[in-house]
Structure to design on (401 residues):
């Protein structure tokens, strides 16, 4: 064991939604000596990419310099973590730096596994295929939707946990509503491929989404998955796992969402559950504290907690992690508990949103108890379009919401 070159009382790996929120909360509580390892010079508000793909927001509004969101007083190491040694209490970075810690907060997000579907990565370079899952491609989605007048549009969702499980279908609704308004929806066959048995895991929201799907005449393939894309030939192969069949569908527009998993270096490292191939950082689902290494915490998309992976979940997890880190620095047991809250603002039209909020019980847990949030609503559209991004940049990243 050698002494690391630098050491922080609290070290955070990943300066996305989770890392910056926790750093801000720790700074607000006057915790000193915080380090943040984050390789990207740009910070992204990813939930906006659905609206960008739908032609309802400019992509530039989703990005800001990372330097502008790192809280004052936090030491930002612009580098990539490649290894965590919880025995040694060190993190090694791509440039070879070794950084020691008293408490570690792990939140490097989720990995996009484009290559797990044959032909998907190559197809993204062809003219009729896009994905809202990257900053670069989200504007292309809108160009394709805007220019389509007839033909077949296919929207797909992969099996397994992904960030914002609603995003694969939100873009289908924004597209269908655009085509309806342009009077061309009747000439466009819209196919939505979902790995799940229904449209949503919470009955109340699934029922409303069934009405939305019927309104647009969308063909939904449940229990199904995209297994192959032929970008040049403009066709996809969809496997129906319930029926045990495969279907080839020709397309004029294809929106894909890649399979996702824990970052490979986390999967292969000592913080993952060795008995679970998913490989997320194995934390207690309430305290967010690692089950084997008590000085380690994790939150956000890289954590093993069985909530829906969303920024909304991060907003509720960050205060729990900050409080529990502070308590354990004072040798107290972690007092705060996360209840699994997540929310998914499902954009069902270009002026309507269904704000699905729920927790570990998978029951609706509305933040606005006096209105019916089990229905698509115009006020929730304005919340999604303007309110949530303001909340993100001005309050959440500053540790105030
Ligand atoms: C299209 C789309 C739509 C979405 N819509 C919604 C929505 O409507 N509502 C909602 O609540 N959520 C939504 N989300 C999900 C939301 O953006 C994520 O759940 C949230 O950003 C997770 O926060 P995080 O900090 O865990 O990960 P991220 O915000 O992704 O941040 C991870 C950070 O870690 C950094 N990093 C990666 N590897 C390393 C490494 N090795 N070392 C150090 N740093 C590293 C990355 O550069 C990044 O800055 C959406 C996401 C997408 C893509």
């Amino acid at each position: 064991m050698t002494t690391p070159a630098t050491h922080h009382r609290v070290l955070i790996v990943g300066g996305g939604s989770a890392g910056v929120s926790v750093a801000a909360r720790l700074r607000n509580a006057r915790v000193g000596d915080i380090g943040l390892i984050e390789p990207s010079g740009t910070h992204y508000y990813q939930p906006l990419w659905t609206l960008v793909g739908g032609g309802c927001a400019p992509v530039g509004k989703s990005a800001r310099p990372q330097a502008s969101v790192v809280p004052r007083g936090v030491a930002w190491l612009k580098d990539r973590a490649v290894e965590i040694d919880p025995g040694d209490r060190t993190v090694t970075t791509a440039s070879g730096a070794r950084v020691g810690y008293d408490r570690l907060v792990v939140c490097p997000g989720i990995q996009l596994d484009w290559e797990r579907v044959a032909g998907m990565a190559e197809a993204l370079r062809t003219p009729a295929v896009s994905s809202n899952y990257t900053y670069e491609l989200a504007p292309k989605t809108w160009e394709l939707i805007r220019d389509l007048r007839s033909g077949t549009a296919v929207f797909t969702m992969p099996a397994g946990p992904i960030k914002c499980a609603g995003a694969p279908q939100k873009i289908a609704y924004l597209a269908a509503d655009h085509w309806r308004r342009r009077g061309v929806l009747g000439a466009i066959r819209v196919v939505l491929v979902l790995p799940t048995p229904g449209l949503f895991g919470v009955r109340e929201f699934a029922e409303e989404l069934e009405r939305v799907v019927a309104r647009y005449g969308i063909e939904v393939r449940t229990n199904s998955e995209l297994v192959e894309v032929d970008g040049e030939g403009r066709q996809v192969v969809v496997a129906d796992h319930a029926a045990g069949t495969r279907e080839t569908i020709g397309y004029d527009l294809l929106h894909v969402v890649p399979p996702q998993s824990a970052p490979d270096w986390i999967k292969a490292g000592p913080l993952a559950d060795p008995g679970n191939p998913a490989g997320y950082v194995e934390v207690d689902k309430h305290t967010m504290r690692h089950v084997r290494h008590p000085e380690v915490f994790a939150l956000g998309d890289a954590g093993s907690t069985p909530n829906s992976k969303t920024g909304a979940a991060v907003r509720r997890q960050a205060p729990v992690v900050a409080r529990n880190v502070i308590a354990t620095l004072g040798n107290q047991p972690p007092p705060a508990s996360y209840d699994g809250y997540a929310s998914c603002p499902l954009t069902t039209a270009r002026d309507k949103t269904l704000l699905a909020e729920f927790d570990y019980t998978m029951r609706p847990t509305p933040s606005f108890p006096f209105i019916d949030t089990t229905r698509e609503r115009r006020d929730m559209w304005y919340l999604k379009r303007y309110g949530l991004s303001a909340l993100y940049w001005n309050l959440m990243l500053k540790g105030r919401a």
